[in-house]
Design goal:
heterotrimer; A alpha+beta; B alpha/beta; C alpha/beta; A: Alpha-Beta Plaits; B: alpha/beta; FAD/NAD(P)-binding domain; Enolase-like, domain 1; 5-stranded parallel beta sheet; 9 helices; 26 strands
């Protein structure tokens, strides 16, 4: 499946990916000014830029083939779409037990405690039907959305 | 080919999903003594506290079994297995013939001997029926004694306290959550619970439940007597191996399984809290009564039952839990005993923050993250993959510890691989 | 010194209605002109640090930023301008030479803008390059005086030539003055478009050897990075005598920019200053130059053209004539607006002559001496667009060199602070935090796009003149007319006035 890959050699550490991720998941959909000025508590970024100058890169859910979070979820909220391969959390079912945080080896699931506690993670902007916001707005093509041979040879 | 599954929780569901990944057609029969659709056992305390509805407790959708072509025999208890004739005998005298069998009967409360257990208003706390029974009698202002300050006991305490019950917990060990926390961590958790009015009696046990027909109190081995309108026995769980007692299947503490989750008898598999599978950290078979392990064992069993060679390299103890907004994630060995361990610690008492990472030969074998649990899974991953951390050991406790702290080559291999295996 | 007399040069304006305090500006400014205040939870500006490079303006996702000239009025004075006074404040504080980067920014006349091109009307019809073939192919190198042909075959070999699909090459910028990613961008763009890039005096990084067939390697006074492999890898060799931005001056790459990669590529110890002397210490005459030219030809078995690059100075025509006679295959002339990574301000702004005059003078002189065919002329020193190129070709150039425009295509915003090593665009810096800002894939694409766009425009203008091959325009000064020029200037340029 297509995933977002970071090319750390071109990551400029601007964190625009985080900013656009927040906006993409806000109720003001992609309107940055409104997202940050009008949302009382803007969404949490589902992508994280890790940085130790001069190295930086963005990391988000890898949508693993054999996703540990889907197996560990105690309520069956975390699931992998068999068609698209996208791992999503059914937030209405999530109880915020953070077992997914415990098992995600990428540390890509965050705790969203703005309201009803839920695990928050990259959904590849699947409801946008286009390329993820982080990739679209990366100013230096440090994020690419592409196929990559995974460990077990499947795409 | 007829698949039979005894049990209806995570391991059973894992098995159904495992079988159906390989075999979409052959019938599956699922037997459970509980009359409910599959639900999440860890959510019973949420139900008690009214934080979730019964409907929200479903572990899979109502149509899960139908969609997966599973015939369910709910509320029917399997009582014996004859592996020669490949038959499962039910309490109602029905006999089910299997080609492949999974035993996923879970755990059963461990109840230490004490007087007065037969009295009314003495409960256990692991199943839906337990919650319903408690909910039927409990009213605000009641006094409750909970025996055991483990995960179940504390969750029961939090649930009851939220209903306005005055809760005292009696624990034999010197601390709460002794299986997953050391003294330092336990102290923080205990104080946080005490702030909410929960009382503790540590280093002691309940000698007797007192009262008439109904429980009215307990007497402790330290001589104290506590009043109690209800008593919850939550000392622990043990594998529910009753169904195999008369069979040839090898049982140690749990049903012994191999890396394919098969028991000592061919075509018979076991998974979940009833099983004794491989523990990656201890490098020996152990009972690991935790949900992720149950699912993975169940799935592995299912895949193998359906003819797909699949190996579960093992699990290890891991828990994510929280009480009154104080989250904690722990895994593996949290209180090392013996030589050869290296312990990294960070403690900020005023923030209730505690981090402890235990290493052996530069490999992480356990950790405690208390009140700062973000990205704990990276550490869990290091344990699972037995990554040598000597190059970045000093970074492990950093607030921002992440992939950036890994040597570039290791980081790239992990990130570019872009995948991780959970049940392999 | 207790106070600094220098007031900020620029003012950062932050539109509060649009700023979302995302701190992209803070993270992107190497000069620390934006600062996050933890206590106030908002971004503040440090105007004095701003160099007006526009990185923050371009990166700001809500377009909340713009930069203005600092609105501090000095008493009007046509003589003592703000710039003149600021220079003195700075020197009074530092006691040092004023440094600058990029090309001469003084308001000297730009002669390209005083020349106009012809177009066909009625007679000699114009050509539509979208419908008819148009030839921009250019060969650089010595052409024989005459061709001996027998039975339809050339009897003698033509001297080595550089083959250009567009008459534009990237001129010399060293690895050290610009980043490896900038080099990678230029090399890949040159390959893509079918032209050449130039290493400058800094050697050829090992990663770029694969682009050797599109590389001109430079041999300059410091001889950095020069060895047999370097020469053999290249398509041509350029001896650098001078540079338009700083004629008569050498170069100095400070040790802090000489990191692992630069050190290996330049073949000098890590962290040492790389000093290119003002003259080549083995060249004090045309004869000495000839020796070097032939040494290089000998070393490369006469397979590669040798270019000699000089700055446009007063007696450029005579010097060029000498260079041709010394055996150069190509003479490159760099005008006084040519760019630099670092130069003394006063030299940059006051030394040399415009490339337009130098080109006209050299072409005229070589023609008069009957040796124009022996050499190709390449000119640089502020070629800003395709019409500058068409005018240069008409004045007599074979091709042009561009550098500043190539850098602008890759993001340079002309802040002129190349010498500080803090280029926020990842171009004129070796700071790994900054160099990664130039993704060579993007850099190559943009630089190649620029060349393609200009090639299209050149074809359009040629077609307009009824010319279908660039060769037919070369030295065709009748296609030019002067506007707003004195007789003397027209005379030197060898063109008629508009209306004549």
């Amino acid at each position: 499946m297509k995933r977002v890959y970071a090319r750390e050699e071109y990551c400029v550490g601007c964190k625009l990916c985080e900013i656009y991720c927040i906006a993409a998941h806000s109720k003001y959909k992609n309107d940055l000014v409104k997202t940050f000025k009008k949302e009382a508590k803007p969404p949490i970024s589902r992508i994280l830029v890790e940085e130790s100058r001069p190295v930086s890169f963005a990391l988000q859910c890898r949508h693993c083939e054999d996703a540990p979070c889907t197996k560990a979820c105690i309520v069956g909220a975390m699931h992998k779409d068999p068609e698209t391969g996208i791992v999503t959390n059914a937030e209405d079912r999530c109880v915020g037990c953070w077992t997914c945080v415990l098992v995600c080896p990428f540390g890509a699931i965050t705790r969203d405690e703005r309201g009803h506690k839920v695990a928050s993670k990259c959904d590849l902007c699947s409801d946008n039907g286009q390329i993820p916001a982080c990739v679209e707005h990366c100013p230096n093509r440090a994020l690419v959305y592409s196929e990559y041979e995974s460990n077990n040879g499947k795409k | 080919m007829h698949y039979v599954i005894i049990g209806n929780s995570a391991a059973a569901v894992g098995a159904v999903e495992g079988i159906r990944r390989v075999d979409k057609h052959n019938p599956i029969t699922l037997i459970s003594d509980e009359p409910y659709h599959t639900y999440s056992r860890p959510l019973i305390s949420y139900l008690l506290a009214g934080k979730v509805t019964e409907e929200k407790m479903l572990y899979r959708g109502q149509d899960f079994y139908e969609k997966n072509n599973v015939t369910t025999l709910l509320g029917q208890k399997a009582i014996a297995i004859d592996t020669d004739s490949k038959a499962v005998k039910l309490e109602n005298n029905k006999v089910i013939i299997y080609d492949k069998l999974l035993i996923a009967t879970g755990g059963t409360p461990f109840i230490p001997p004490m007087d007065g257990l037969e009295k009314k208003n003495v409960f256990t706390f692991i199943k839906m029926a337990d919650v319903k029974a408690i909910s039927d009698v409990v009213v605000a202002g009641n006094k409750a004694v909970i025996i055991g300050a483990g995960l179940i006991g504390l969750k029961a305490a939090e649930g009851l306290a939220s209903l306005g019950v005055d809760v005292t917990i009696v624990e034999l060990a010197n601390r709460v959550l002794s299986a997953i926390l050391d003294e330092e961590g336990a102290d923080i958790v205990q104080k946080n619970l005490e702030k909410r009015g929960i009382k503790f009696e540590l280093n002691t046990s309940v000698k007797a439940i007192t009262g008439g027909e109904e429980a009215q109190g307990v007497t402790l081995s330290n001589g104290k007597a506590l009043p109690a309108d209800l008593v919850v026995v939550a000392v622990g769980v043990r594998p529910n191996t009753e169904v195999v007692e008369s069979s040839k299947i090898t049982v140690n503490r749990g049903i012994v399984i191999d890396e394919k989750c098969q028991t000592s008898i061919e075509n018979v598999y076991a998974a979940g809290d009833v099983a004794e599978g491989y523990d990656l950290i201890f490098a020996q078979n152990r009972v690991l009564p935790i949900l992720p392990n149950a699912y993975c064992q169940g799935e592995t069993a299912g895949l193998n039952m359906a003819g797909s060679e699949s190996i579960f390299s093992g699990g290890f103890a891991m828990n994510s839990i929280g009480f009154y907004g104080l989250p904690m994630i722990t895994a593996g060995i949290v209180k090392p005993e013996g030589d050869g361990y290296e312990v990294l610690v960070k403690m900020v008492p005023e923030q209730n923050l505690y981090k402890k990472i235990i290493l052996k030969d530069n490999i992480v074998v356990g950790f405690i993250y208390l009140n700062e649990v973000d990205r704990a899974g990276i550490i869990t991953g290091l344990i699972r993959e037995k990554t040598n951390v000597s190059d970045f050991k000093q970074e492990l406790l950093k607030d921002s510890f992440g992939y950036i702290d890994l040597p570039q080559k290791l980081r790239r291999s992990k990130l570019l691989k872009g995948d991780s295996a959970s049940c392999q | 010194m207790s106070i600094n007399y220098l007031t900020p040069a620029f003012l950062i304006e932050r539109d509060k209605d649009r700023c979302i305090d995302c701190q992209v500006c803070v993270r992107q400014c190497a000069n620390e002109a934006h600062r996050w205040d933890e206590e106030e939870q908002r971004v503040f500006s440090e105007d004095a640090n701003c160099v007006n490079c526009h990185r923050c303006v371009v990166m700001c996702p809500t377009r909340a930023l713009h930069i203005k000239k600092f609105p501090l009025e000095f008493r009007n004075n046509a003589n003592w301008t703000q710039d003149a006074m600021r220079a003195i404040y700075l020197q009074a504080e530092t006691g040092g030479v004023l440094l600058t980067g990029m090309g001469n920014d003084r308001p000297y006349p730009i002669y390209w803008d005083h020349m106009l091109l012809n177009a066909s009307q009625v007679t000699n019809p114009s050509i539509d390059p979208l419908r008819e073939p148009m030839e921009l192919k250019t060969y650089l190198g010595r052409k024989p005086d005459f061709l001996k042909i027998k039975k339809g075959k050339l009897l003698e070999d033509i001297p080595p030539q550089l083959e250009l699909d567009v008459p534009i090459m990237f001129s010399a910028m060293s690895f050290g003055s610009i980043s490896l990613n900038a080099h990678k961008s230029l090399a890949a763009a040159a390959k893509k478009v079918g032209t050449y890039w130039n290493t400058g005096e800094g050697g050829l990084h090992k990663d770029l050897v694969e682009h050797g067939s599109h590389t001109i390697v430079q041999v300059a006074s410091g001889r950095f990075g020069v060895d047999a492999d370097y020469l053999k890898t290249a398509a041509a060799i350029e001896i650098k005598i001078g540079q338009g931005a700083k004629p008569g001056i050498g170069g100095h790459l400070p040790g802090e920019k000489v990191g692992e990669e630069v050190s290996q590529t330049r073949m000098i110890p890590l962290g040492t200053d790389a000093i290119s002397p003002a003259p080549h210490h083995d060249i004090y005459s045309i004869e000495d130059l000839r020796q070097l030219i032939y040494s290089l030809k000998e070393a490369t078995e006469y397979q590669k053209p040798v270019i000699v690059k000089i700055a446009a100075v007063h007696n450029v025509a005579a010097i060029a004539s000498g260079i041709v006679r010394a055996g150069a295959d190509v003479v490159a002339i760099d005008g006084f607006r040519g760019g630099t990574g670092a130069a003394p301000l006063r030299t940059r702004d006051s030394v040399g002559i415009p490339i337009e005059f130098a080109l006209a003078a050299v072409d005229t002189r070589l023609r008069e001496e009957g040796i124009r065919n022996q050499v190709s002329l390449v000119v640089g020193g502020s070629i800003r667009n395709s019409s500058d190129i068409v005018k240069a070709i008409a004045l007599g150039a074979d091709a042009v060199y561009i550098a500043t425009s190539a850098l602008i295509s890759m993001g340079c915003h002309m802040c002129q602070k190349c010498y500080t090593g803090k280029c926020n665009w990842g171009i004129a810096t070796q700071d790994p935090q900054l160099t990664k800002r130039l993704n060579p894939e993007i850099g190559a694409e943009r630089a190649a796009n620029l060349l393609k766009a200009w090639a299209h425009e050149i074809e359009e203008m040629l077609g307009g003149m009824g010319i279908n091959a660039l060769e037919s325009l070369r030295g065709n000064r009748l296609m030019l007319r002067g506007i707003g020029l004195t007789d003397r200037e027209l005379n030197i340029l060898g063109i008629k006035a508009a209306g004549e």
